[in-house]
Amino acid sequence: MLTSLVFTLTTDAPITFPPHLGRASRAAFLRLIAETDADLAEQLHAPDQRRPFTCSNLWGLKRQGRSLALAPGSSSFLRYTGLTAQVSEHLRRWADDPPAHIEMDGHPLAVKSATLDPEENDWAGQTTYETLGARYLLPGDSPSRYAEITFVAPTAFRSGGKTLPMPLPDLVYGGLVDKWNDFAPVALAEEARRFGEECLAISRYRLSTRAISTKGSAIQIGFVGRCQYTALNRDRYWLSVIQLLTDYAFYAGVGYRTTAGMGQVRRHTNR
After folding, report:
1. Which residues contact 55 (CB under 8 A, 6 or more apart)?
2. Which of 43, 115, 196, 203 is deepest in the core (most CB within 10 A)?
């Protein structure tokens, strides 16, 4: 099961937040999990693992100098995704029976609503690995050579011991292959990584850098914007895998620190 839950939050009093709340968002997520499953919360918090969830920054706040402000009665949004049945079950439960409040950076925010329905919020959704696989890997029309991703939250990669704020095809799709193979019931062939590295090219992009504050007041450089990839090889199977992973990115996130507000992405469509 793959899930994307969106909370709509509000407050009765004005609140000023720091500009990046990714760590606070993750802390809130783990607190909610711990209320009913302390063992799972501990597992998800353990270091040196690929984590089966993502956490967004708090969206919808207004910039106020170097801070973000939430006015009384206005709404903000918090998004969590689950990449395994165990995590997704908690998100589905919160959608049916939301908590009354979520604490962010020491401030309790009232929960107005929680949804998995993309008709209510287009960042919400739910599907399965099997459904995604069937959409692209079963016989059918030839898939497109093009895939375009919108990077909504600052995104960056760790490569060769350095931080790289650039959506190179092998980093984007290689990371998605790793996540898919860690959590999906059926793994993709490792050649998928080589196809992304050798047979995908960036054909156009509109990107800009963003600096965010992280732990200890350190500055993290990421990028936001859109990037289109074009396959130089028209092999139907590998084109299908690339389209599959492009849809998967909506749930899995891209790059690193996806559990702390970074790497929130979606397929770009001309809607």
Report:
1. 22, 25, 26, 29, 78, 79, 80, 258, 259, 260, 261
2. 196
Contacts of 235 (CB under 8 A, 6+ apart): 195
Radius of gyration, CA atoms only, the chain: 18
In 83-236, DSSP assigns E strands to 101-104, 107-115, 125-127, 146-155, 157-159, 162-164, 200-213, 219-231
Residues 6 or more apart whose CB falls under 8 angstroms from that of 140 comprise none
CA distance 213 to 196: 31
Tell me the pLDDT tens digit for each residue of 24-74.
999 999 999 999 999 999 999 998 899 999 999 999 999 888 889 999 999
Look up the pTM and report it.
0.96
- Provide DSSP, 87-128: HHHHHHHHHHS--SEEEETTEEEEEEEEE--TTT-TT-EEE-
Residue pair 250/239 in contact (Cβ under 8 Å)? The answer is no
Gap between the Cα atoms of 113 and 109, Å rounded: 12
The per-residue DSSP string of 254-270 comes to: SSS-GGGB---EEE---
Quote the tokens at residue 8: 């709509």
What six digits make up the tokens of 235? 């092999």
- Neighbour order of strands in the sheet with 67-70: 15-17, 67-70, 62-64
pLDDT tens-digit map of 161-183: 889 999 999 999 999 999 999 99
- Residue 218 predicted with pLDDT over 90: no
For residue 231 the two structure tokens come to 């396959």
In whole angstroms, give the CA distance from residue 223 to residue 154: 5
Residues 6 or more apart whose Cβ sits within 8 Å of residue 67: 16, 17, 18, 19
